[in-house]
Design a protein that fits this description.
- The structure is a single chain.
- With 187 residues, this protein is α+β, with helices and mostly antiparallel strands.
- Helix content is 20%, strand content 33%.
- The longest helix is centred in the first third of the chain and has 19 residues.
- It is globular.
Length: 187
């Protein structure tokens, strides 16, 4: 009986070590992924820190944290159609504005960074405006998940089509079943 208990404890210890030492530890609240490519290091922060979430949005350090994290995640990226990375949908510039592949005109313009709650996680994302979208559907939020999927969250109801009239706190947001619009390469 003691031998069985020792074996069980050994297995539990190995499992705990495997999870805690994993590259993408699910217990890591920041879910940082470091991509040290030849063009420089990029550290992806997908999940907002509890410390920053506790601050009000009037706090400039919170605004800076979200904006810097979002730009580190999405600035100057190639957006692929799927996670096979064989077809390019578009790209982003240094300000996280989105361009369709082969186009020089901004398709969606980055306005500011925010947080998006999905499945109990507070993702870092960005509010976007599209002058080419249908009336009432020009505003949406994009965030990246831990796999590099670009998820789009749409606004419920009719919002202003004016680029300078932002959605407010009363705006309801929803994701569609086909909310994944592209992927970035994490490695």
């Amino acid at each position: 009986m003691q031998k069985q208990i020792k074996i069980l404890l050994t297995l539990i210890t190995v499992l705990i070590l495997a999870v805690s030492c994993a590259k993408n530890n699910p217990n890591n609240p920041n879910n940082n992924i470091n991509n040290g490519g030849s063009d420089g290091e990029r550290t992806y922060t997908f999940i907002a820190s509890e410390e920053m979430l506790s601050k009000p949005w009037t706090d400039q350090t919170k605004k800076d944290y979200f904006e810097n994290s979002w730009k580190e995640n999405l600035a100057n990226q190639i957006i692929y159609k799927d996670n096979l990375y064989s077809t390019i949908n578009g790209r982003t510039d240094e300000n996280c504005n989105y361009y369709d592949d082969g186009q020089e005109t901004i398709k969606t313009k980055f306005k500011y960074a925010t947080n998006v709650v999905n499945n109990g996680k507070n993702y870092i994302g960005g509010l976007y405006y599209s002058s080419t979208a249908y009336t009432g559907y020009k505003w949406f939020i994009i965030y990246l998940n831990e796999e590099g999927a670009e998820i789009c969250v749409n606004a419920k109801g009719t919002l202003s089509d004016d680029e300078n009239t932002f959605p407010d706190a009363s705006t309801e947001w929803y994701t569609t079943p086909s909310a994944t619009y592209g992927y970035i390469k994490l490695n």
